[in-house]
Amino acid sequence: MSRQHDQLERLTFFSDAVFAIAMTLLVVEVRLPHLAAESDRALGQALLDLIPNYIAFLVSFLVLARFWAGHHSLMGQLAVSSARLLRANVSLLLAVAFMPFPTAVISQHGELRVGIGFYAGWLLLLGVLNRRAVRVVADDPGLLAEDADPVAIREHLARSWIPIVIAIAAVALGMIAPLAGIVALVVGSPFVTPIIRRVARLGPRN
What is the DSSP letter of 78? Predict the structure, then answer.
């Protein structure tokens, strides 16, 4: 059991590192502006022109932070890992590590439908892979610690729908109007989260 617990710790530490690196790399797209002429006005305008980059950074940082918080909480419910969980986790981390690139795309091309679609599509993939990892844990009680909370696992399953629903909404709205897709990404969570939680409470066990 000690060896299995060590493997779980290594998996958790590695996952935390990937999340941390990906979240840090997001700021790379907020580049220092180059000025044709040094002046307060030119610098102020250049900083204002970076507003799309600020928004993309903030949205992506909060998205990854939320995924990390859920992942951290889920790992806290486990006593051991498994080959299936390892594969699911690596797939999730692949999507996490790539997140700075969709962020760069939406930073530069957020006014285009393809830009919104690409970003929201990657968020959808990230959500699906995250749900797959949670599903692996829910389907294998042997992974859980003795004091694991079954209710918490069901809540993880319910919450795993949130980024999926937001991403689908962003893709659909973004194809109509790119700005609508961005709005869905920015403010979707406060609307979707209570709905998902209510459905989870009223519906059958996931």
Answer: B
The C-alpha atoms of residue 183 and residue 111 are separated, in whole angstroms, by 12
Who's near 9: CB < 8 A, 6+ residues apart?
none
Quick one: DSSP state of residue 142? G
Query: pLDDT tens, 18-53?
Result: 999 999 999 987 887 777 778 888 888 888 988 889
Contact between 196 and 161 under an 8 Å Cβ cutoff? The reply is yes
Backbone dihedral angles phi then psi of residue 78, each to the nearest 5 degrees: -100, 155
Q: Which residues contact 45 (CB under 8 A, 6 or more apart)?
A: none
Q: Give one DSSP letter per residue of 6-24, joined into a string.
A: HHHHHHHHHHHHHHHHHHH
- What is d(CA 30, CA 11) in angstroms, rounded to the nearest whole number? 31
- Per-residue pLDDT, 206: 43
Neighbouring residues of 172: CB distance < 8 A, sequence distance ≥ 6: none
Nearest CA among 128, 138, 129, 130 for reference residue 82: 138
Mean pLDDT of 143-170: 91
CA atoms within 13 A on the CB side of 167: 19
